[in-house]
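Now produce a polypeptide, keeping tokens residue-aligned:
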Amino acid sequence: MTEVIKSGSLNNIESIEFEKRCLHKARETGDRNREVVCLGSLGNAYHSLGEYHLAIEFYQQWLDIAKEIGDRLGEAKSLSGLGNAYQSLGKYQRAIEFYHQWLSITRKIGDWTGEAICLGSLGNTYEYLGKYEQAIEFYHQWLSITKKIGDWTGECICLGSLGNTYESLGQYQLAIEFYQQWLELARFIYDAYGGQCQRNGEAMALSALGNAYNALGQYQKAVEFHQYSLEIRKNLDDQNAEANAWFSLGLVLEKINRESEAMDAFCHARETYQTMGLDASLQDCNHAIELLSQNVASAVSPLWFRRWFSHLSQFIKAYSNQ
């Protein structure tokens, strides 16, 4: 359904008005198939705007009609939308309920792609809840399917998610194994087909490896991986990601007493955060600079170290809306 919203030059607000007119006409003419298309598009549009409660209303209507007319694929997609909306609201248990219903349908109708995406969404939601063993179980199922169907993009995201979960459990060597597989696959895809998305994935994998080696106290390796990530970030049109790479590099340089280089990295990061108006990141950066100036080891917010995982989560959500 997403294609209806993305087509042409309409923005979300204009798309909503257009789809509402189409929905009214579909209901007047009794065109049930067109009605579900409009409901799905409206749900997606409101979700994109962050109007999650309104999105849920339209997804629920979509689900009800899909059940009524026996549209199993539409039922699965509407359940996906409901799960994503509840996850965005932080209502994770409710999201899990819809994801499990979605999973059941994908398995009944033999939709391997839908099943893979659903497994990723379940793993992602369990990880948000801190239920790492359950997350790992779903991620491994997801990984198995992505390999069967040759979904390299999904496989990359899954490998990163597994690495992140093992890192959350303090199992850094296992995390590194999955991050390394992610890096190798991202590089293979980029070498074969190019594309900024895969280049971005490579940079994320390098950053994740840097974080894991940092946690193991292998700081020189951590520096190398963060430097590789930074070099890629400089060539991508993503200022926030570049600033994050500078900041991560600064944290590790500080630990090996390369204070002047660390300060330079923090200042690069701060300049970008200021430009972009990223207050939370700017606060962490200013704190790190202040502590470094006082020759005190940085103790920035733990939230910082999971920001790159939030990036991964967004990949999974975007992936599930394809």
Summary: The chain has two domains: 1-77, 139-322. The CA atoms of residues 18 and 322 lie 21 Å apart. The longest helix spans residues 172-193.
